[in-house]
Here is the input.
Amino acid sequence: MGGELLVGISALILNVIVAIVGLTWGLAKIRDTVKDEIIKYRIELNDDIDSTGRSFGESIAAVREKIREVELFIRDTYVRRDNWSEGFKRIEASLQRMEQKIDEAKAVAANAAAVAAAAAVKAATHNQN
Here is the structure.
């Protein structure tokens, strides 16, 4: 019985050792697979981050360009407030000069009408005499 027990214990110990070696080898294989997957996903994530960064940078550049275009359009299309006030003052001065000339023309026309009326009265009284 002593020899059979020794063979049985030896077989059990051998099976445990083989199981431990197999388990260790299986875990090492799983570890390597997981490590490879992590590296692969890390590379994909870095590529995605780079792509997103470039895309975002291009978007910001496009917004900057649009702002520059709007600034140039406003500069070329609209008048500055100082220039507007200055131009409006010139128009007011021109209108005042025109009003003075019209008033002068009316006065000259009224004088001419009065002279013509006086001449007509004088002529009518002269013809009656």
In short: The chain has two domains: 2-78, 92-129. The chain has a mean pLDDT of 86. DSSP finds two helices and no strands in the chain. The helical segments are 2-77, 81-128.
